[in-house]
């Protein structure tokens, strides 16, 4: 089974202005939708839609609107009760100044503060849910109240239970993961260019620009360095430039498909879902990379935080090359 932990879940509200966003101006919303959000929930939805067994774990109080949305999705989940409410993240879609491109502006709440007892309860719910040979994905930011090294502690705890553990996070929690290497290392790490830059001390936009120009050496070297420090597989997503996977046996690259972008929210989580689906199906590394990028490309063609179904995903394994 694939189990996801969303330590700081959200209600994802997406509004489309259909026009440029002007600071200080008055705007009218063209479309508005609210969906269950949080990186682990997004991954779980992708896995569920592929027909695999999945469980989403998250902190949320009884009667929280997020739980009703999860019920409506039919997503198996367990909520560790908290006193606060789940945050709302706002995504504003607007046109660029020329009116032809899409600009995504995200405004995120910090989330409810977890007390020490609530934090312990969340860990216990996770530990009780997992079994040997399960895969666990620890995704997203940490709720206020959780220490920056929470994911490091959970990787160590879950490895004691013979569980395959992936991590997708940023900022201080990602720094804690990097600092813990090689003593404690996840089996799977999924940074984007910005997050990889946080680890290696390089501007993420420069890494992505160089990749777009065909210079994949900096990303390849950084991903390999993380793998050499004990991370089982490192999947670096590079937006429109594609993605790089470093794992046992080598490094693979694939470009992204050329698609019309509707919303970039949830694309990285969809890529994580695609990778985990491929891993669960026993695919080889190159095929896992192709599936991950296909899921990410499909996600950007969908509105809001919509995670694709398998029939919306077009996998191009023939585009994968070994670096």
From TrEMBL:
Residues 16-311 form the Carbohydrate kinase PfkB domain. It holds the Pfam family PfkB. GO terms for cellular component: cytosol. One of its GO terms (molecular function) is phosphofructokinase activity. Belongs to the carbohydrate kinase PfkB family. This is 1-phosphofructokinase. Keywords: ATP-binding, Kinase, Nucleotide-binding, Transferase. The keyword NAD does not apply.
């Amino acid at each position: 089974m694939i189990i996801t932990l969303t330590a700081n879940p959200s209600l994802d509200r997406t509004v489309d202005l259909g026009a440029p966003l002007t600071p200080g101006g008055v705007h009218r919303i063209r479309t508005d939708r609210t969906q269950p959000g949080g990186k682990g929930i997004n991954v779980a939805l992708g896995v569920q839609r592929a027909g695999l067994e999945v469980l989403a774990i998250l902190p949320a109080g009884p009667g929280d609107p997020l739980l009703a949305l999860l019920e409506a999705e039919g997503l198996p989940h367990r909520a560790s009760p908290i006193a606060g409410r789940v945050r709302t993240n706002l995504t504003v879609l607007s046109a660029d100044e020329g009116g032809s491109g899409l600009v995504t502006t995200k405004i995120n709440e910090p989330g409810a503060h977890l007390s020490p007892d609530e934090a312990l309860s969340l860990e216990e719910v996770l530990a009780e849910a997992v079994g040997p040979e399960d895969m666990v994905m620890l995704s997203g930011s940490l709720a206020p109240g959780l220490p920056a090294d929470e994911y490091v502690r959970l990787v160590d705890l879950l490895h004691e239970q013979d569980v395959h553990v992936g991590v997708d996070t940023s900022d201080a929690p990602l720094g804690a993961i990097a600092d813990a290497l090689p003593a404690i290392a996840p089996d799977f790490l999924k940074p984007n260019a910005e997050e990889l830059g946080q680890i290696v001390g390089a501007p993420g936009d420069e890494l992505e620009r160089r990749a777009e120009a065909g210079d994949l050496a900096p990303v390849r070297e950084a991903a390999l360095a993380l793998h050499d420090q004990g991370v089982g597989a490192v999947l670096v997503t590079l937006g429109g430039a594609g993605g790089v996977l470093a794992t046992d046996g080598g490094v693979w690259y694939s470009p992204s498909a050329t698609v019309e972008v509707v919303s970039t929210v949830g694309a990285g989580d969809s890529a994580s879902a695609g990778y985990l689906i491929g891993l669960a199906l026993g695919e080889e590394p190159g095929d896992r990379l192709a599936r991950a990028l296909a899921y990410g490309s499909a996600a950007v063609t969908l509105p809001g935080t919509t995670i694709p179904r398998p029939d919306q995903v077009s996998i191009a394994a023939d585009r994968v090359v070994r670096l």
